[in-house]
Amino acid sequence: MKKILCGMCILIGGLAGCGQKQAAQPAPATNAPAKSSVGNPLTAPVDYIGVMGKAQKAAVKTVDLSALKQGIQAFKAGEDRLPKDLNELVTSGYLPRMPEAPRGTKFTYNPSTGQVGLVQE
User: Fold this and answer.
1) Beta bridge partners of 115
2) Measuring CA to CA, how many Å separate 32 from each of 16, 36, 39, 47?
3) 121: which residues sit within 8 A by CB, 6+ positions away?
4) Which of 26, 54, 57, 83 has its CA 20 to 30 A from that of 104?
5) Using one digit for the tens of pLDDT, what is the confidence trace for 27-77?
6) Can you list the domains of the chain with their CATH numbers?
């Protein structure tokens, strides 16, 4: 009798353990990236060119503003005053030429404070 009871327990335990298990659902990521073409190998060259174009524009803007700021500082140190306008930096020899503003923007200059910046046209 004990043998039958033990055999049935083993059989029931085996059948219960052999059932199909449902796969655990992965928790949804809260910081999952938005679906886009970024990271797609087919669009990688286009993505690269776009990023490089934006980086180049930002670098040119930074370099031009930096050159103007340095010219204004040199003018103030040499002339003991701020220039009346940005063209005075060129005519006085503090800049070799006036840098070009990136397309769609223009340089602004405040002669009372010496601040220079870029604004959209």
Assistant:
1) 110
2) 38, 12, 14, 20
3) 104, 105, 106
4) 83
5) 655 655 555 556 777 777 777 777 777 776 665 556 578 889 999 999 999
6) 43-121 (3.30.1300)
